[in-house]
Design a protein that fits this description.
The complex is a heterodimer of chains A (142) and B (150). Chain A is mainly β and 142 residues long. Chain A has no helices and 12 strands. Chain A has one domain. Helix content of chain A is 0%, strand content 41%. In chain A, a hairpin with a 4-residue loop joins strand 10 and strand 11. Chain A is globular, with a radius of gyration of 15 Å. With 150 residues, chain B is mainly β. Chain B has one domain. Chain B is built from no helices and 12 strands. A 7-stranded mixed sheet of chain B has the order 1-3-5-10-11-7-8, with no helix packed on it. In chain B, a hairpin with a 4-residue loop joins strand 10 and strand 11. The radius of gyration of chain B is 15 Å and the shape is globular. The termini of chain B are far apart. The chains are: A mainly beta (142), B mainly beta (150). The interface between A and B is medium-sized, with 37 and 30 residues. Strand 1 of chain A pairs antiparallel with strand 1 of chain B.
């Protein structure tokens, strides 16, 4: 197969920052945004996968930490386990198989790290996520 | 020497996604693209643009999406480590690679690769230049995911 352009998707070019404090469905026009979220037991849902959103990307940062429950980054309903992830924080988690959910752990079950970073990209078929934290266990996946 | 602007290079700002499945020569107008790289049966080389002050600010992001044989991302004209020995952009890459347990660095390499024994889809390589050298940061899960060239 030859090298090919997959898509050209408008981006906010990391010039827009938004706050998340409750459940949120991300959409194609959110590409290139920074999202700062406050810990809580709710979902942040990625857009539906399709070739039309190849190149979609964002950065998600946990700005407050508490024990009110894990915040879950999840794939769109019906997309299933499509997220590959790499953790840089000493956790020897397997990444060979894609997952549906990535959990930012709350302080009750583990993480006292005040700030966690997730960078996310897609080729339209899968999500590729880089997770950055200080300590092992800040994230789990399912 | 005073602080100074060294370049102003147009960029796609990650608004363009491309798939790489075979050898490719990148050019100045590829800056800011998001490249999804597929390894296949047989290794191949992706060459970076020729270094010059005119491309200061050039950047690219590469994400591994299919496992197979090695894919090298080398300086201009370099087909394999130190080959040919006359290539002008030999040993022009500063390289840092992080995994969950290790890190590696080297400041005189010819390129960087998604290794032949890579096992982790989603490995990431970010590349920037000041026009004189390439500055590379890799994120993988195991040491074999991302490997220096030369």
């Amino acid at each position: 197969m030859a090298n090919v352009k997959i898509n050209s998707l408008p981006s906010n070019k990391h010039q827009v920052v938004e706050s998340i404090t409750e459940a949120k469905q991300l959409v194609p026009k959110d590409s290139g945004k920074y999202f700062m979220f406050d810990q809580g037991a709710y979902n942040i849902t990625l857009p539906k996968l399709s070739e039309n959103i190849a190149g979609w990307n964002c950065t998600i940062i946990k700005r407050t930490s508490n024990d009110t429950g894990d915040t879950t980054l999840t794939t769109y309903s019906g997309d299933g386990a499509k997220t590959f992830y790499i953790e840089v924080e000493g956790n020897d988690a397997s990444v060979a198989t894609p997952v549906t959910n990535i959990l930012f752990k709350d302080t009750n079950s583990y993480s006292t790290d005040p700030h966690l970073f997730a960078k996310i990209w897609t080729d339209g078929s899968n999500w590729y996520t880089l997770l950055l934290a200080k300590s092992s266990g800040a994230f789990t996946a399912s | 020497m005073a602080n100074l602007k060294i370049g102003s290079h147009p960029s796609h700002d990650l608004e363009v996604a491309e798939k790489i499945t075979e050898a490719k020569q990148l050019t100045w107008n590829d800056s800011g693209k998001l490249f999804f790289v597929e390894q296949g049966s047989g290794s191949y080389v992706v060459n970076l643009p020729k270094l010059s002050t005119e491309i200061a600010g050039w950047q690219g992001k590469f994400i591994l999406t299919k496992l197979g044989d090695a894919v090298e991302i080398n300086g201009y004209g370099i087909t394999a480590a130190n080959t040919p020995a006359t290539a002008e952009d030999l040993e022009k890459m500063f390289y840092v690679d992080f995994t969950h347990a290790t890190y590696e660095e080297d400041n005189t390499v010819d390129g960087v690769s998604f290794g032949a024994s890579a096992a982790t889809l989603g490995c990431i390589i970010d590349i920037h230049t000041d026009g004189s050298n390439w500055f590379v940061m890799g994120h993988g899960d195991i040491a074999n995911d991302i490997v220096k060239v030369g």
